[in-house]
From TrEMBL:
<feature type="transmembrane region" description="Helical">
    <location>
        <begin position="141"/>
        <end position="164"/>
    </location>
</feature>
<dbReference type="InterPro" id="IPR033458">
    <property type="entry name" value="DUF5134"/>
</dbReference>
<feature type="transmembrane region" description="Helical">
    <location>
        <begin position="6"/>
        <end position="27"/>
    </location>
</feature>
<feature type="transmembrane region" description="Helical">
    <location>
        <begin position="62"/>
        <end position="85"/>
    </location>
</feature>
<protein>
    <submittedName>
        <fullName>Amino acid transporter</fullName>
    </submittedName>
</protein>
<keyword id="KW-0812">Transmembrane</keyword>
<keyword id="KW-0472">Membrane</keyword>
<feature type="transmembrane region" description="Helical">
    <location>
        <begin position="97"/>
        <end position="121"/>
    </location>
</feature>
<keyword id="KW-1133">Transmembrane helix</keyword>
<dbReference type="Pfam" id="PF17197">
    <property type="entry name" value="DUF5134"/>
</dbReference>
<feature type="transmembrane region" description="Helical">
    <location>
        <begin position="39"/>
        <end position="56"/>
    </location>
</feature>
């Protein structure tokens, strides 16, 4: 979905760093629910990395849909000591992942090549293509895909700014940013990264 190679690498590095931080927090958690939540976040980051690269976009689509749908239910019913905003954000992050994996073939249906290729590409065809070298979007995603993508993008941008503002406010009172501040910043980065990915579905 992302045609710019530089942006792919930026998102890859950001989500790889976020996944590493989530795994670090997972190892430090003492409660089972906390470890599950951090592990799910790490898996979500891994899913975002694969989604950024055309060759891996079709990797295990059905298992991903099942996994992230179950993860959305997990965060919806598990408090984990977080407030309503964090629960809503985590739930929509996982639901958004499941939706993107499910809806991606629809959003990709209008993709054609610039070198004589016409007609929509199938999932197997676009999976191995380098969209950064001569691929362009010549069609439009279905209306319902656009509506959901825009709504998710707006939410993730707003949520990301909230998380980052909380991180900045907390950092002002610290001589050296701690794990809590880093966690808030990571939430913000993950949310803004999700916004970039959902925006590519439009």
């Amino acid at each position: 979905m992302i045609t710019d190679l530089g942006l792919r690498w930026i998102l890859t590095l950001l989500f790889a760093a976020a996944a590493a931080f989530c795994l670090y927090r997972c190892a430090r958690r003492t409660r089972f629910s906390g470890r599950v939540s951090e592990g799910l976040h790490a898996l979500m980051c891994a899913g975002m990395v694969t989604m950024a690269w055309p060759a891996t976009m079709d990797f295990a689509r059905l298992p991903q849909i099942v996994l992230f749908t179950a993860a959305a239910v997990w965060f919806a019913v598990t408090t984990g000591g977080h407030g309503w905003f964090a629960r809503t954000h985590h739930t929509l992050m996982m639901a958004g992942m499941a939706w993107m994996v499910f809806a991606m073939p629809l959003a990709m249906a209008g993709m054609t090549g610039m070198t004589g290729m016409t007609g929509p590409m199938t999932g197997g065809e676009h999976a191995g293509m380098d969209m950064g070298s001569g691929m362009t979007m010549t069609g439009h995603a279905p209306g319902h895909v656009v509506v959901v993508a825009v709504a998710l993008t707006v939410f993730f941008v707003a949520a990301g700014l909230v998380w980052l503002s909380r991180a900045i406010d907390r950092a002002r009172g610290e001589q050296r940013p701690g794990r809590r501040t880093a966690g808030l910043a990571t939430e913000g980065v993950m949310s803004l990264g999700m916004a970039v990915m959902t925006l590519t579905m439009v």
